[in-house]
Design goal:
Blueprint lengths: L5 E4 L2 E2 L10 E5 L2 E6 L1 H4 L8 E4 L4 E4 L1 E6 L4 H4 L3 E2 L6 H13 L7 E6 L12 H6 L5 E5 L4 E4 L1 H6 L13 E4 L5 E6 L1 H8 L7 H17 L2 E6 L7 H11 L5 E4 L2 E2 L5 H10 L7 E3 L2 E4 L29 H12 L4 E5 L2 H12 L8 E5 L5 H10 L2 E4 L1 H7 L7 H6 L1 H4 L5 H6 L4 E3 L10 H10 L19 H7 L2 H5 L16 E4 L8 H4 L4 E6 L2 E5 L1
Parallel strand pairs: 1-5, 2-6, 7-14, 8-9, 9-10, 14-15, 15-17, 16-18, 18-19, 19-20, 20-21, 21-22
Antiparallel strand pairs: 1-3, 3-4, 6-23, 10-11, 11-13, 12-13, 23-24, 24-25
């Protein structure tokens, strides 16, 4: 056994894999070599061994967010955050005040806007023309699958509303067939984004590195980056390593878009195994549909607006071909599937894959039928969900766009975390940043309360689907790794010394206290990445 270089002590250590009465961890070269008590650790101490005592704190396996977009998100989270505005009038005021302080010769940018501000009306960019007359304005909506643009912005990008795409992307139009400023899905959004000020690779590297530092400060030691969507992504990953060791580990799963064919899939396969010091490419991300809020999900029956009737794939058979090609190459996949028909289609596709030991995960799983849930249990698929997508964007009274489009009956089959856990299906948890905040404490709390825990008096949607404190912690640790066929997320001999240190025991404190519990430190490969 290698000589220890670090001993870390705390009154409570949750290994999540065996004996829970440890209070000492012995580490050599970033690997856990010993687990024991404080008394036993006294025998481990040798000259040159660093001893770090966290006293009454609690150590858990390092938290890993199962779904983030840290580099791609640099292009989204620009300008003013609009996620807190409640209606169009407030949006006009907030955006108008921000626009007045921006240089006249540059576009005015924002992000995080919830289309719920439009009530029962159709989303459009017309309020931007009121808020900032004559200005090129662009706001990415909260789900990152849609955006809003002013008329000058549309004109600057040369948008006519007649554009055709190789997937389900589109520009919403008015009765005259002219673009109204509501932009749906990535290919359409990309045409607008080409007209925006360019961020350099160095800009994105510095912004992403700081973001990862902030994530570590909230308790994360790892994250799953489910895209390689920014063309500079590989360069950004390498530039960040010039700044220093990443504050957390990244598993990168490049996108395979609905417009992609065999050549794009083969490129993703070739990228497997490319890695840096704390990042590696392993897996692929696909998308079968869009979002319910925007009418781009894939439902068995149309939503209340007559929308969400088709896959993002113009021919869903191409999804089957892409998934099969990846599976045959041994690539673990995760597929964005939100509407019930999209989820059912993906479950059937995964069920038909060769049983070669490769894990395939379904992302979001927002609304599904009982029949498809039974098929899910038999499919071998794993699941990744985001509790705050329910608690932040869905209201108990059904007044939000998501609930209104689905109607009460279908909405009752939504965000079924409890059912997934009870069925013994591996359930990973995450944020989908920048769609929702990345603080894992808030997300684990909301998983337990089924409401926005940090907001006193917030309502609860589907309270039957609450998770226990341990289930929420497992969703951020062992289950994230298991969901893609990897090992990790437990404190065991031979495991990487990735640790999160809390000021109080997250399995014992109330969810309300968990929201603000002190993150004392995080460790990646035994090296302290965040300390207070």
């Amino acid at each position: 056994m290698p000589a220890l270089d670090t001993i870390i002590l705390a009154d409570t250590i949750h290994s999540l894999g065996g004996t829970e009465n440890h209070s000492a961890i012995g580490i050599a070269d970033g690997i856990i070599q010993k687990l024991g008590t404080r008394e036993e650790a006294q025998q481990w101490i040798k000259p040159g061994v660093a001893v770090i005592d966290h006293g009454s704190a609690t150590i858990t396996p390092g938290l890993v967010d199962a779904h983030v977009h840290p580099i791609y998100g640099q292009n989204i989270a620009r300008g003013i955050f609009m996620g807190d505005v409640k209606d169009v009038d407030e949006a006009i005021t907030v955006f108008g005040e921000y626009a007045a302080a921006q240089p006249e010769d540059s576009p005015v940018l924002g992000y995080g806007l919830n289309v719920a501000i439009f009530g029962t009306g159709k989303p459009s960019g017309s309020f931007l023309d009121i808020a900032a007359p004559g200005r090129e304005s662009y706001i990415t909506c909260f789900d990152a699958h849609s955006a809003l643009a002013s008329q000058p912005m549309l004109e600057a990008a040369g948008i006519t509303g007649t554009e055709k795409f190789a997937d389900g992307s589109s520009f919403a139009t008015n009765e005259q067939g002219e673009p109204n400023g509501f932009i749906l899905e990535f290919a359409a959004m990309a045409l607008l984004e080409k007209a925006l000020p360019t961020l350099t690779a160095q800009d994105k590297a510095e912004g992403t590195f700081q973001l990862l530092r902030d994530m570590a400060a909230k308790g994360l030691t790892g994250a799953e980056m489910l895209d390689l969507g920014d063309p500079d992504s590989l360069q950004v990953l390498r530039l960040m390593e010039e700044i220093g060791d990443l504050p957390l580990k990244l598993r990168v799963a490049p996108w395979v878009m609905a417009s992609d064919g065999p050549q794009a899939v083969d490129k993703v396969i070739e990228l497997q195994g490319v890695q840096g010091r704390r990042w590696n490419i392993r897996g692929a991300k696909l998308m079968i549909d869009g979002t319910i809020d925007n009418g781009t999900a894939w439902l068995y029956e149309p939503d209340a607006e007559g929308e969400s009737t088709e896959s993002l794939y113009l021919d869903p058979q191409q999804y089957l071909a892409n998934l099969g090609r990846l599976a045959q190459a041994g690539v673990t996949t995760t597929t964005h599937a939100i509407g019930d028909q999209g989820i059912g289609y993906v479950i059937k596709a995964i069920s038909g894959l060769p049983q070669n030991g490769v894990r395939h995960r379904i992302e979001h799983l927002e609304e599904m039928t009982d029949e498809d849930f039974e098929a899910l249990k038999a499919s071998g698929a794993t699941v990744s969900m985001q509790p705050t997508h329910c608690t932040h964007f869905v209201r108990a009274d059904g007044s939000d766009p998501w609930s209104r489009r689905l109607g009460g009956h279908r909405a009752s089959f939504a965000f079924r975390l409890r059912d997934v856990a009870d069925a013994g299906i591996t359930l990973a948890l995450g944020s989908d940043w920048p769609v929702a905040p990345y603080d894992p404490r808030l997300i684990m709390a909301d998983a337990q309360t089924r409401r926005r825990t940090e907001v006193e008096g917030s309502d609860s949607t589907g309270p039957r689907h609450k998770l226990s404190a341990r289930e929420a912690l497992e969703g951020y640790t062992v289950n994230v790794h298991a969901s893609t066929g990897a090992t990790g997320g437990q404190l065991a001999i031979g495991a990487a010394a990735d640790l999160t240190v809390f000021g109080a025991d997250p399995l014992m404190i109330a969810p309300e206290e968990l929201c603000t519990v002190d993150v004392v430190a995080t460790y990646v490969d035994g090296k302290r990445t965040n300390a207070r």
